[in-house]
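Worked problem 6 (solution included).
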Amino acid sequence: MYKSLLSLFIIVTEVKFSFTGRRDNPDRIDIVDMTKPTTWTSMSLYYGAMEKRWKMCTNCGTPSLGTGMHLEQSETSGSMHPAVIPSEYLLSRLTVIDLTGMTAINPTIVLTLDVALQWAALKHDPREPTLLLFRFGWSEEDNNNINIRTCACKVPGLSYELAEWIAANLSHVVGVATDAPTFESEQTREFASRTVSNVLGRSGIYMIENVHFRRKVPEQGCLSLAMPLKLLNSVYVPARLTAFCPAVNENRQTDVHVVMALRKDIHAQARLPNSRVYDVNLDEILS
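Solution. The predicted structure is:
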């Protein structure tokens, strides 16, 4: 499925990505897939329920949909959609905020502004487009804490004040991500407008949830490439997230940063006869 999504992404944006590592060793780059798989069945159930306006427990996130990207809650009237995110915002520096030690003590922790400012990545505006990835240590076993019928969930998240700080002060942060099903914490989950999703979405910051850590990822030095399913009439879509990290010995500290270039590549190749590659109607498939 995700091979087809990648092909769709490249066709729509007409962009090619080339990357290199250090000048003296350009091959030392680890490519890490951070995507939790999404099935066509889960997509059909989710978008079918949204179209029929069924009541859903969206304040607990949608873990069954896999890795998902959104800008605002679906109940709001925002005009931003994943399909209009600039391509240069989808290829960005990756900074990991590791909170697993804190969530081991308090699984439903609310990351407040005063605690978050202890990390330099959150205290100072980065120098280039950056995706902030909050690693809470969420796992498949934690899905048992979500009661969909009563919309009761125990999920770690961000405080509203922290989201406001990111939106107002970190001008180079183009996106935030988490391994939990939602960014909403106990402080924001029951509100309609005073939510993390709304304050970040109104500022043009996209959000990626259900990120899957298959292996250890360095806190600094990586680049990330987000590839959302580019549906025009949806603010929440499945996405693929890939990290490009320096391949170094885990026991040795390094200041190596992966460097990637993004260039325009427009082909004048004639359309293939009897081909529907450019006529794929995703709305028709999902219905």
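Discussion: The first strand starts at residue 15 and ends at 20.
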